[in-house]
Amino acid sequence: MDLKKIGNQRVVTVLADTPLEDAARLMRENHVGDVVVVKSKNGKAVPIGILTDRDIVMATIALGAPVSPLTAGDLMTTELVTIQEGESLNQLIDLMKKRGVKRVPLVGKDHELVGIIALEDVMNLLAGELSALAEVANRQKQVELHRRQKLA
């Protein structure tokens, strides 16, 4: 399965020096729970971190800390977990499980950002596959009844 088909190829990105308020505003405007922090390398956006709405809340609001002097780079997760676009769905699931992450940026051969895959994307795909498998038993019954009618 092509991982590009699972996730979102339209990724909201910011630079490390983006004010935290601007990053949060982008999340709200784009209805997303994260922004990928990128740097430019050979004209391509290369992910260097990820900032989630939870990161912002836990590091500022929950502690009563001011938001205004902070940037995306100050709070981003720097131990970024990414996956190459040629990897398999099973490798993605294993990676999410082992590293305990819900969002994984998808990168190309030059480590450029090509998409992002969220846990919800994987769950929706698998739910559809399970639903299709559930139909196999129903179809089998129909085929068997049709076959019996021909023999009778």
Write structural notes for this entry.
The longest helix is centred in the last third of the chain and has 33 residues, at 119-151. Helix 1 links the parallel strand 1 and strand 2. This protein has helices spanning 20-30, 53-59, 72-75, 89-99, 119-151, and strands at 13-15, 34-41, 44-52, 83-84, 103-107, 113-118. The mean pLDDT is 92. It has 5 helices and 6 strands. The protein has 152 residues and is of the alpha/beta class.
Summarize the structure.
Helices cover 43% and strands 22% of the residues. The protein has helices at 20-30, 53-59, 72-75, 89-99, 119-151; strands at 13-15, 34-41, 44-52, 83-84, 103-107, 113-118. It starts with 12 loop residues before the first strand and ends with a helix.
Helix content: 40-55%
Mean pLDDT over the full residue set: 92
| Total DSSP helices | 5
Low-confidence residue ranges: none
Write down the secondary-structure element order.
EHEEHHEHEEH
Radius of gyration, taken over Cα atoms and rounded to an integer in Å: 21 Å
The rounded distance between the terminal residues' Cα atoms is 43 Å
Largest sheet report: 3 strands, mixed
* Strand arrangement across the biggest beta sheet: 1-2-3
What overall form do the CA principal axes indicate? Answer: elongated
Q: Which structural class do you get from the secondary structure elements?
A: alpha/beta
